[in-house]
Design goal:
Elements: E1 3-9, E2 13-20, E3 27-30, H1 34-47, E4 50-57, H2 64-82, E5 91-98, E6 101-109, E7 114-118, E8 125-126, E9 129-130, H3 133-145, E10 147-155, H4 159-177
Parallel strand pairs: 3-4, 7-10
Antiparallel strand pairs: 1-2, 2-4, 5-6, 6-10, 8-9
Helix pairs in contact: 1-4, 2-3
């Protein structure tokens, strides 16, 4: 079974993450930021990747370290669970609507990390979640998992809907990309990723 368990402790955060790629997407998430928990739960459920995430962060400062460091550890855990990344579909794309909002994601699990993030929020905060940290999370996640990640919050008026559509678009693209190929070979003209 493709799975990984990682812990990372700094002066700012104490994080434990466990992922199982071949599961049913059960989520046990506690970061101390309710809306972020909601987004990570959506990422787990819609990707089919089970995630246990426990975070104790310096929320008395703000949510930045908690959100970014969670992206780092979750990305590393995903990368470890994928091993050498051979035998996977590798690419995934998804359009996800949520009421008036529409988001698109396209990704490549390539060992060439990159992030293109397009979209804006109307308000600074969604509950206790700093909306600008969405891009920080995806950057940390992509760079630590070895993913080329493009996320586009195409339109929408409700920040909750726009953000959730983006997380779900990433989830559905990821679900496709981590699916094993029948042949089990590396999808690359080089023969390796």
């Amino acid at each position: 079974m493709r799975q990984a368990q990682l812990a990372r402790k700094t002066k700012e955060t104490d994080i434990q993450v466990a992922v199982k790629l071949d599961n049913i997407g059960t989520a046990n998430i506690d970061t101390g930021i309710g809306f972020f928990d909601h987004m990570l739960t959506a990422l787990s459920v819609h990707s089919g990747i089970s995630m246990d995430i426990a975070v104790k962060g310096d929320l008395y400062v703000d949510g930045h370290h908690t959100v970014e460091d969670t992206g780092i550890v979750l990305g590393k855990a995903l990368g470890e669970a994928l091993g050498d990344k051979s035998g996977i579909t590798r690419y995934g794309s998804a359009f996800i609507p949520m009421d008036e909002a529409l988001a698109f994601c396209s990704l490549d699990i390539s060992n060439r990390p990159f992030l293109v993030f397009q979209g804006t929020f109307t308000n600074a905060m969604i509950g206790q979640y700093d909306a600008c940290l969405t891009e920080e999370f995806f950057r940390a996640f992509a760079f630590n998992a070895g993913i080329t990640l493009h996320v586009n919050m195409m339109y929408g008026s409700n920040d909750h809907h726009k953000c959730e559509a983006a997380f779900k678009a990433v989830a559905h693209a990821l679900k496709t990309a981590v699916t094993p190929l029948e042949a089990g070979k590396t999808l690359s003209t080089k023969g390796v990723l």
